[in-house]
Write the structure tokens for this entry.
Amino acid sequence: MPKNNRPAVLRWFLRLVALGVVAALGVLGFVAWAWSTARVDTVGEMRFERPLAIPPLAESRIDDEGRRVFDLTAAEGTSELLPGEPTTTWGFNGDYLGPTLRAERGEQVVVNVRNELDETTSVHWHGMHLPAKADGGPHRPVEPGETWSPTWRIDQPAASLWYHPHPHGETEQHVYRGLAGMFILDDPDSEVADRLPHEYGVDDIPVIVQDKRFDGDGDLREGNPMFSSTGLLGEDLLVNGTYGPYLDVETERVRLRLLNASTARVYDFGFSDGRTFSLIGSDGGLLPRPVRTDHVRLSPAERAEIVVEMEPGGDVVLMSTPPDIGGDIFGRRFNGGADRFDVLELRAAERLRPSPPIPSRLAEAPDVGARPDAPTDRTFSLSGRSINGESMDMSRIDETVELGTTEVWEVENSHGTPHSFHIHDVQFDVLSVDGESPPPELSGWKDTIFLPPHATAKVAMRFTDYADPDTPYMYHCHLLKHEDQGMMGQFVVVEPGDEAGTPDHTDDGHDHDHDH
Ligand code: C2O
Ligand code: CU
Ligand code: CU
């Protein structure tokens, strides 16, 4: 018997080996297939057949207290995002995205945010310096049928900010479905505002870039592509909600206010002919001086204002080339690091109206009184989906900051996935990146900073107003999937010597009404 057993064992062994080989080949084939389909490249394929939609400037009125009042209503609608295909979308005061809010430094604003959706949402004013109760984070849900009316004084330099929902765990979906818009701040005291292109929709253009995935019948697909660790990456780009957009340019210079309102994708914007342009602004306003460059990388939520020179009758395409997102070869491939897109075609008229040259000085350099070698006050280590080992807890205050202080925060990506770190309420000064002085594109005010794997940034900011021990501001990864998965923490600003209180919820002391 033992003699006959040996061939049987051998046979089984060989079968197992064969099975193993087949399985390994299958896995390999699958990985090869995933690898080759992961890359998106639309360069040269885009036909640019639709005029770029320009979000309307929001109407406003001055109430009897002298406040500028806006109305924003979130509701579901239908948009033709892809030609000929109706898509269910969400928008503010319309079917998709929202109007551009615009206010001046010094003005008191009120925004009546009304929710006509079937679910709870919220609206956060990204980049705005304002009281925590007006910030619109996860502690201020707006229920269906409810109107929330935050008010605050605009008190920061001219900038391209934006607004979007922030409901805990659902931010990605709400933004992806279309709830987002720009909030442009002007500064009446700026000496350069008139010398930069500033005619909205003519030579001063919002460029809100978002990637989408559509299923066969035009509906938006949600959920991760395989192997992506950053979140949803779409194959089709929309600019201001327009697919395949072109813009007719009638001036020698055009200013583009680029906003990466995508949920996870990082872009590296530049032009099809490699031309250089002037980078004039970042998240929190104008740079100290223009930076001449041929590309600008933007991670989710970051903004860049650029000015491009046009030739009469000349066309050029704004593109995104493979962004440097760091990490290993798989991480780069599966998180959009190999992707290229045609974004927007600029078509210059045969005769262009003259535009003045760009001033060589634009704004004061950020100065919060912290030297590049200032000691670190707080450290934030981003790893997995947590910050300093903690996952977001609405009832836990993670950090308590005293009013009137300047703080240096060191933020480290201790992990192989890219992240982007955003802080509410303040604009910060980037002191260093990986121990080096920051590149010129980070020379202005920032509220969000991209952190490739293993990068460390030191940022400094001043906490000048709005103590409120019970209402936290957020800091978080702005890859919205990560944020929703808990990569977020809370800080309160308190009077010197005070302690953090207990996070309150919805009780914001402002006028709001339930009428359903
Ligand atoms: Cu753009 Cu906490 O958000
Ligand atoms: Cu924000
Ligand atoms: Cu992240």
About this structure: Residues 2-38 form the longest helix (37 residues). Residues 419, 477, 479, 482, 487 surround copper (II) ion (ligand 3) (CB under 6 Å). Confidence is low (pLDDT under 50) at residues 507-516.
